[in-house]
Amino acid sequence: MESLTQNQQQHRTLFLDQIKAIMIALVIASHTVLLAGLSSAGVGQLIKDAPLFAAVNLWFIWVCNTFFMNILFLISGYLLPASIQKKGLKHFVRNRLIRLGIPLILSIFVINNILPLGGLLIPDSTTFGLPVANLPLNRIGPQWFLLVLLFFNAIYCLWVWCRKTRFSINQKIPVPNWRAWLISAIILGIAEMGMSHFSNFWISLKETNLDGLGYQGMHLWTYAFLFAFGCKAASHHWVERISQRLAIRWFQASLLISFTFLAILITTVQGGDAEAFLQQTWPTLSALIPFVGWGYMSIFLYWTQHHEHIGGAWLAEAGKDGFGAYLIHMPILYGSFMSLHLLGLTNIWTLSLSASILAIILSFWGSHQLRTIPAIRRII
């Protein structure tokens, strides 16, 4: 029985690590055009001159945003109860403060300052010639994820400490059915729409040191729900028991909605009124995020654990390097994009795809090299 439990844990960790590698790669790819457009006047003009590219990129970012951070929060919650049980609450809290707190501090005060300071030396940069005092320094950027994850971890640890409960597995509890997921998608969709369109709070954060929360804060209720669901699912192995039929059917619905949006978006761009179309439809698109995301998440969770041999151990190992790749990808992504641009690559489609692939490879490779250092491996 002990051997069976260990094999199940290894199986579960393998496919979850594979998913983490894929999600982090998509995060890097989704940041490519946004970062380049905000950091380089020349690239920003290339994007403006290619409205079809801008539309397709917007669609890609919207689709990715329905699931990639959502599934990372679910996985974080899913692995949390067993980790606390294994390490003990006090040791876990100390370890988590090190593994999340130190990278958060280093990212804000070191890694995230590389781009604005480096921009002082690049004439094409949007920060070129600015006084140092006016630079957007010490911003949280994509490390908002660490801050929110620390907060969620703290709440769960406090709950465990107050309840004095021990983690155990009971597979007799059935997996939530489609009605439960549909209700959750509707409720969270309303919350997403309200947070995105009836509050200027998150927009105002984009110009502060908490700029990353300005871009992602409107999704906090969805992230909190999935993190909590992950914690609950771990006690019943719900992830391993996902219905194939439900996963495929919901995924098909998500694909239909996604490509319908793409077709309408491309048609609208060709008609020349894309901006007005986006303003009108953005509340609906926000409300659809949970529903569409459930389909992509379910198929990823179902398909990878039944086909983990395709990615194999190398993809799972890349998943272990994913945290470090996430931390360092922004300066690497900018360097990749600008290097290719300065070498004469001006086709925005080719430039964006090439820079994304190069940055993904370099970010994971850099993280892997850093993790060979014992002191750094303890953190990332």
Compile the SSE list and pairings.
Blueprint: H1 2-39, H2 41-48, H3 51-65, H4 68-87, H5 89-109, H6 114-118, H7 144-163, H8 178-197, H9 201-205, H10 211-216, H11 220-234, H12 244-271, H13 274-306, H14 308-320, H15 322-342, H16 348-370, H17 374-377
Helix pairs in contact: 1-2, 1-3, 1-4, 1-13, 1-14, 1-15, 1-16, 3-12, 3-13, 4-5, 4-11, 5-7, 8-13, 12-13, 15-16
Would you write up a description of this structure?
With 380 residues, the chain is mainly alpha-helical. The chain has one domain (2-91, 188-377). The chain is 78% helix and 0% strand. It contains 17 helices and no strands. It starts with a helix and ends with a helix.
What can be said about this structure in brief?
By secondary structure, the chain is an all-alpha fold. It is 78% helix and 0% strand.
| Number of beta-strand segments | 0
Helix content: over 70%
Order of helices and strands: HHHHHHHHHHHHHHHHH
* Biggest sheet features: none
Keywords:
single chain; 380 residues; mainly alpha; globular
